[in-house]
Specification:
This protein is of the alpha/beta class. 32% of the residues lie in helices and 27% in strands. The protein is built from 16 helices and 26 strands. The strands form seven sheets. Strands 2-1-10-9-11-12-13-14-15 form a nine-stranded mixed beta sheet, sandwiched between helices. A four-stranded parallel beta sheet has the order 4-3-5-6, sandwiched between helices. Strands 16-17-20-21 form a four-stranded antiparallel beta sheet. The longest helix has 18 residues. It is globular. The model has no long low-confidence stretch (mean pLDDT 91).
Amino acid sequence: MNIMMLLEMATSGMPDRIAFSSYNDNSETCDHLSYQQLFNAAGVAAQQIKKTHCTRTAVIDISSLALPIALFGSSWAGVPYVPINYRLTENEISALLARVKPAYLITDAERVKKINASDNKEGITAIERSQFIQQTRSATTPVENDWSMDAEQTAVLLFTSGTTGTPKAAVLRHKHLVSYILGSVEFCSASEDDATLVCVPPYHVAGIAAMLSSVYAGRRLIQLPNFTAEGWLKVARNEKVSNAFVVPTMLARIVESLEGKKSADLPHLKAISYGGGKMPLSIIERAMALFPNTDFTNAYGLTETSSTIAVLTPEDHRAAVASTDEKIRRRLISVGRALPGVTIEIRNDEGVTLGAHQRGEIYVKGEQVSGEYEDRGSVIDKQGWFPTRDAGSMDEAGYLFLEGRADDVIVRGAENMSPGEIEDVLLEHPAVSDVAVVGIPDEQWGEAVAAAVVLKTGKHASEEELQNWVKAKLRSSRVPQYIQFRKELPYNETGKLLRRVIKADMAK
């Protein structure tokens, strides 16, 4: 098993179909690669990587055609593919590069110049993105198929965000990625006219999964390097996009840009998948109204699980919106149920499996789950369970509700509180657009409940009004003692709320 097998199958079945289209930085011009061209280019890339004797292929750049060529070329060459966050500081990038040497690095022209001019370039063979694409695309005949079929080889190394310390390098082996694709995607299921628009960062597991799943399905993937709501809508209309993946903050921006419209006017858009963060109920309800003929899917997964492990299907979305049963309506803010081949449990601090509606840590088991880090080994237990460090609960039907990170729990006195529970109540207030609840130091109780609130445009609510709103629906101990109004909340580029930033600000 090697992810090259996915590309080989697609190339054999539809060699002339366009596999990837990539827009430039300003979303004005677009370049394309067919499956046969991608296959040939990957073979050339593999030869180049082997010649350097590098043991990793690193990419520090925006999305471009270099990404799929490098991903499959690395697999062909038998070395891990390592995309690195180009938004990090220079010191952070240098530290990560030092961990993956010797590396064949694909990056922007300015970084290539810096590396070549540096006295510390040992172990890095740097090539500029456009040069890499041009050299690998020059191939007109395929290279001999000599890739390894060892499923235990590492396909991808992905650095975690490092929000609580030094980033960990998550190990995704070929067996994990292939298992995920074979278990969730039907081969050649897309028509030649289908196209999916993706603008998640290239160093995120969702970006890797999008490339692999699109190739196996035979669906053209359109890369949009930089997101704006206006640019996204323009490309979606011009390209007659049929499928799209966004993070919740992106969907919120798209919805905001369509304020006053009755429809998004995207008749070709058959499906939108979203994931990577918590989706406010008001946003998904408004989005479904603006895209009435579009299927919505919420996908939840982690880097260590090779992407998606649970989905809220289009049928689930429609059933929740149409229902008058509050329990079923609430499922619209869930991440759905486990994929086939994946098992999910909720456990308490002692490792005991909890029942319905009980909050604890999410554990997951399945063939696609890696749970392994370079230099640290596997954290999967003897029964095959991976502790996600995400907090959540499940209802009687197995729908999973996320409640932040397990470490985000607020401990007030002897009582443990879920920030998500309080956030959900505040988001029900007609004036609240976004909210984050955190615990801040308190001499009497250990921690006090604090909330950062963003109000909807043209709406008003006082601190006392919101406190009374929570008090009417939850116990008084869960009422925020402090409420801070903000224009916006801090999110990272993958849509995750930077709760630690809010906590630090409010603790001052």
